[in-house]
Amino acid sequence: MVANATATWPTVLHAWFRPREETWQLFAANAVAGGLSFVGIALETGMSLATLAGPLMTIMGSGSLVFITIGRGVISRAKEEIMEVEELLEPSPTQVNETE
Fold first, then answer.
1. Model confidence over 74-97: pLDDT tens digits?
2. Are the beta carbons of 22 and 14 closer than 8 angstroms?
3. What does the pLDDT look like over 4-41, one tens digit per residue?
4. Total structural domains within the chain
5. Do residues 52 and 58 make contact, with C-beta atoms less than 8 angstroms apart?
6. Which residue range(s) make up the domain with 39?
7. Euclidean distance between CA atoms 59 and 3, whole angstroms
8. How far is CA 80 from CA 23, 34, 75, 84, in A?
9. How many other CB atoms sit within 10 Å of the CB of residue 69?
10. Predicted pLDDT at 77
11. Who contacts 66 (Cβ-Cβ below 8 Å, separation ≥6)?
12. What angle, rounded to 10 degrees, do the helices at 49-89 and 24-45 form?
């Protein structure tokens, strides 16, 4: 479990700082696959942490990455929109001289 979390950490950082470079769909598919594994293992062997730890890590890691990539992507797009509007609202140097 520690190795899985350690291996996922660079991807979490990359998704956080560069959200548009990661696609959430692959993480969502991996989370769904983890969920199916969880259900299959739970039905076959019962609810034991030893057997369900792997799928749980997949669900938590991939699910977190889905939320990070979508959330940070929305936030970064909103910031860009705000900056574009601010640039449009700032008076140009010629407009400042005309008002004086």
1. 888 888 888 888 888 877 666 555
2. yes
3. 778 888 888 888 888 778 888 888 999 999 999 999 99
4. 1
5. no
6. 2-99
7. 15
8. 19, 35, 9, 6
9. 26
10. 83
11. 24, 27, 28, 31
12. 160
User: Which amino acid type is present at position 96?
Assistant: V
Task: State the residue for tokens 């190795």.
Answer: 3
- Among 66, 68, 77, 86, smallest CA distance to 26 is for 66
Q: In whole angstroms, what is the distance from residue 69 CA to residue 21 CA?
A: 9
What six digits make up the tokens of 44?
């076959």
CA distance 90 to 42: 60
2 touches 61 (CB < 8 A): no
Predicted TM-score (pTM) of this structure: 0.68
For 18: left if phi > 0, alpha if psi spans -120 to 50, otherwise beta; the answer is: beta
* Token code pair at residue 21: 């470079």
Torsional sign, CA 16, 20, 22, 24: positive
